[in-house]
Amino acid sequence: MNPPILLKMTVHLNRSGLDEAITYYQKAFENNPNYALAYNNLGTAFLQNGQIDKAIIHFQKALEINPNLAQAHDNLGNALLKMNRVEEAIAQYQKALVINPDNVRVHNSLGTALLRTGRLEEAVTQYRRALEIEQDYADACSNLGLALFRLGRTEEAIVATQHALQLAKAQNNAVLADAIRLQLKLYQAGIPFHLPGTNTSKMSPDN
Length: 207
Hints:
The protein is mostly helical. The chain contains 11 helices and no strands. It has 2 domains: 101 residues, Tetratricopeptide repeat domain (Serine Threonine Protein Phosphatase 5, Tetratricopeptide repeat); 87 residues, Serine Threonine Protein Phosphatase 5, Tetratricopeptide repeat (Alpha Horseshoe), CATH 1.25.40.
């Protein structure tokens, strides 16, 4: 399978229904069953379609063919996280970062997975690393605020979250800005805020 065909498949995924895209990818494998990136893209289509088990199978197949395909490790981590297999997701994000250490989105995802296990200081490290690479990454800045708040570092959390709100507004991301604005109000009121699936037993008590 050559790059133009892969590009055509990707455009098909972006412009058509997911079911059609999945059928298109499956037919493409008849010509080249060992093309790792195509398995990764088909896994992405399954993941977007809510078929997480099938997505995991295809990401794993992509990695059997090419263990150094960073995006497959990342996508597998995302799928595992949706299944609440958090430690497995962390391992995949870490593998992705070994291959591509400057991927800000993976640093952010790893931080979120670590946050869910209560490994707050490690989560802060990942969010800060993402922001070192991309200073205007509003999601990472917002998540940094959350981790700091859960550590009881409320003033730092408010500063980070205020900055995240400024970034979201500057990027005209109204949905994210509204979510961050609510998050900020909770911090200012001292109200505990938890991510779904977070293990709060390992977290520092609120101030």
